[in-house]
User: Fold Probable dual-specificity RNA methyltransferase RlmN from Catellatospora methionotrophica.
Amino acid sequence: MTSLPLISVTDGDGATARRSSMPPRHLADLDLAGRRSAVSELGEQAFRATQLSTHYFGRLERDPAGMTDIPAAARDRLTEQLLPKLLTPVRELACDDGETRKALWRLHDNSLVESVLMGYGDRVTVCISSQAGCGMACPFCATGQAGLTRNLSTAEIVDQVVYLAGVAQSGVMGGEARRLSNVVFMGMGEPLANYNRVIAAVRRLTSPSPEGLGLSQRHITVSTVGLVPAMRKLAEEDLSVTLALSLHAPDDDLRDELVPVNQRWKVAEVLDAAWAYAARTGRRVSIEYAMIRDVNDQPWRADLLGRLLAGRLAHVNLIPLNPTPGSKWDASPKPVEREFVRRLRAAGVATTVRDTRGREIDGACGQLAASEVEA
Assistant:
């Protein structure tokens, strides 16, 4: 049996992460009032905080040289203290005619994280990381097998979004400027194990400019493998984000293996927390289910999943597994996948199959970082 991941959710910060390597303070770590205080402490007038914020969040400008309405001396002082460089690009790959772009970043302590920009007909989505590595130890996931390095800061999370929103706006996707519409916390890491910083990042992303990016809360998705105390805490945040539960198996015997945290919080308890979130927010829960050949794709498991979800405010998102190199795990054959979908829909459960993107650019979470480490 896969060992239970060592993780604490009592403080919301992931007690096993190395706190000593956190990056310097960035304006995205602070709300607007906090930025004004920080600017005043640096001997500058408080309105400079609004100027900096307007450049960063409103104009997606991350380069201090472009902030020409701030006097050079003040700009140097402010940007040194409030706009430190958090993400250094290592590789950026594109596929799907430029509609999918994956970025690999090196952080100040040499940790590696990934984020992905995906263009669809009616929306532009960014998938971001919330931790460097992951402590959940799911055996079919490249990130889970790498282990947890540390939590990301609020600003490290937000900066991924600001950068990729700027890429979309630059016109490289299909030759026209595109506006970012959706953010999913489905990259590296377990978001609810870095609870406080992820919630702060959500508030930065959804606060109106210049405090934040001004995205709709309903266009933000926060995923979890099922950290029940944090799920229940999220329901009390008065947010209308989508909760995505990475279930991957409807029975405890298999889920104990595929999602080791299930050894602590069983399927029934995890689903109870999901239904409590749906009841409190009125938001449909997304049930994420990676289709793994001959592991979790049997017809009886589709029927069991259908019984668990029937009549609930839930939607199943089936994910064709993107196998990692050398892994024993593989995607379910398409006929098996179609039968799984048929059985769920017959049970009255709304079901879709995720559009697969980025296979040729190591699209699965953690693959690009793993290939860089191996190189």
User: Anything to note?
Assistant: The radius of gyration is 21 Å.
